[in-house]
Amino acid sequence: MMRTVLEEAAELTRTGQPFALATVIWRQGPSSSKQGSHAIITADGHVHGWIGGACAEPTVLREATAALADGTARLLLLGTPEQFGGHVPEGMTVVPIACQSEGAVEVFIEPVLPAPHLVIVGASPMAHTLAGLAEVLGWRVEVVRGEDFEADERSMVVVATQGHDDEGVLERAVAARPAYLGLVGSRKRGTAVLGYLADRGVPAGQLDRVKVPAGLDLGRTTHEEIAVAILAELVQLRATGISVPAPTPTQEAADPVCGMPVSPVATTPRLTHDGVTWYFCCAACHRAFEKDPSGYAKARTL
Fold it and tell me: Distances from the Cα of 60 to the Cαs of 33, 201, 203, 206, 222, in angstroms?
């Protein structure tokens, strides 16, 4: 049995994957959308669930991708202001759609971004203190041994192995290209570790991303204060928006028949003519282009 949209949302949340939840708030017929319908749009542009037909879905996909990029929810009216008597509620964005149907849909799109993922490599008292503090903030935290280390580009990694294979762990951590990578230790120790990795051929551009020592510089401190300093640095980086990359918005294209913006993802109708790939909002526009590809292509390139 297929999972429901909300079950899918729960699974994505559990695994720390970003997605947008689109909900139909209101509809005006004729429209294939139903009030209360949900759909999930993942960061790679896939739609799970039902939010509307060929006219509504490309617009919702485009706006959901933008919501994931800037972290801001949006309320959309897919139609015209006249369908609200010319008085569009404050905060609503009107998105004209080029379908011939006179229906309209109001959709709320909410980005659901994963909790920060912190990977702490090591078993020192500082590592466990840092883990406890991060958990208070609701972060996803893993404390692992060096040989069990795994991370990705959305992870924040703190290497606190205290001389136990610092070089090997840091080399694997650098290769994972995490959003943040810090080494707990003195500057002298850090210089030695980074120098060793440079001699092994690790690119300087990757080594330059390693923060040594990890955390805000508080001078000589206790292990509890070191944990606070590291967490403070991570919170500061997240507040400035540079520590965890947002999903990249899908590049837009214009339907050559109706001019409607479309997101060229795997499910978008397309046709290649004279070496140029054209994307369409729906099958009707695709068929119209097939009947006169040269005419539509010429009109769009003038």
Answer: 12, 46, 41, 37, 51
